[in-house]
Amino acid sequence: MYPSSSSSFLSSSSPPLEALKPEERGLHLIQLLIKCANHAASSNLNLADECLCQISRLASLHGDSMQRLAARFASALAFRLVKNWPGIHKALNYDTKRPKLELDRAHVIFTKAFPYLSFAYAIIARTLLQAMSAERVIHIVDLGSADPKLWAPLLQSFAALPDGPPHLKITCVHSNKAVLEKLGPKLVKEAEALDMPFQYNPLNVSLRELTKDMLKVRSGEALGFVSILNLHVLLAQDDQADAQFRPKKSNIDVKDCKQMGEFLGMVRSMSPKVVLLVEQEAHHNLNHLVDRFIEGLHYYSAMFDSLEASFGGLSSSSEERFVLEEMFGREIENIVAWEGVEREERHERYAWWMVRFSEVGFKPVRLWLDSMEDSKKGYKIISQRTSLMICWNERPLYAVSAWTC
């Protein structure tokens, strides 16, 4: 769906909109979106409005994948523009008119419809098992996923160890109390069925609020951390005050973030045997709107293409597909429309995470995967021993990595 070269964005031709074929329409939409992002970045409301008028004639929440993607990015740009006038924004009751997004349901649908997280879960489970198989008292901290599809199979794997099951404690950190209350009974029931000594420790706090004392790590526990698509929220900061880069130790400029450094330092101070990280393989933590807008188009075009492949073409009006697109739409809106501490979707590529982890004293460790199916309907895993990329049609979407002290 997405052109291979950004230079193709800049065509000056403007054919009649009604006469465009699907491929031409997609290219024209990208050109209009980039143009509109430039106008929005310079706060030129009139020219941005002209672009949005043209985009609205071509984009559709019920069209092909490019039309759906364009509708989400156009909405995010419009929201950014309206936010410049707080009175108008408030009078429109924007937030109260939006359909309520049930994130928990969206995540369930996402896990069911796509193998991305299933691949990651399998690798996390095997790596944890390898790192902890000789330990008799294990404490694993779940930094926000709270997904029984990750933890229940892991309990089963530990229960099947030759020396019998270890004592396992899972601390789950989540800002939604209902999610914690839902997960706990499932894991306790699974542990009882396996006759496995088990402790569930729910922490109803955000990652920003989490402290070392809350985790109650005891002497003799083999400690592990797992973060799945959550750690990047700690990169949110006041970009105007904190826009500085660390001295180059490689060919990568990594934006300084005190909050992230302190959090990783806290984790490092507890000497975990392994820290497992899953993050979007994208670079949306850029100060300039147009830069991250183009990065967002590249990344989410692959996501919407995979939705198209999974849910069907133009005739598809699947409610599940709409829920997922709404979830991605909220991410796109946060990337495009918000700034400062409110912009939490600051995804960074594995190379940037490697710098951040290394600077506080972590080193990469091997990921474990067996002969699992690594290619299916365009999905593929590219493994580099200490990291791997989960791809759609050769485009990396998620990175999995493991770290130790």
TrEMBL record:
Segments carrying motif VHIID: 138-142
Region of interest called VHIID, as start-end residue ranges on this chain? 107-172
Q: Tell me which UniProt keywords the record has, alphabetically.
A: Nucleus, Transcription, Transcription regulation
Q: Does the record bear Transcription regulation in its keywords?
A: yes
Pfam families assigned: GRAS
Domain of life, per UniProt, equals: Eukaryota
User: Which segment of this protein is annotated as the motif LXXLL motif?
Assistant: 231-235
Which residues does the annotated region (Leucine repeat II (LRII)) include?
182-214
Localization per Swiss-Prot or TrEMBL? Nucleus
**Entry's PANTHER family?**
OSJNBA0084A10.13 PROTEIN-RELATED (PTHR31636)
Q: Which family does it belong to?
A: Belongs to the GRAS family.
The name this protein goes by in its record:
GRAS family transcription factor
Source species of the chain: Prunus dulcis (Almond)
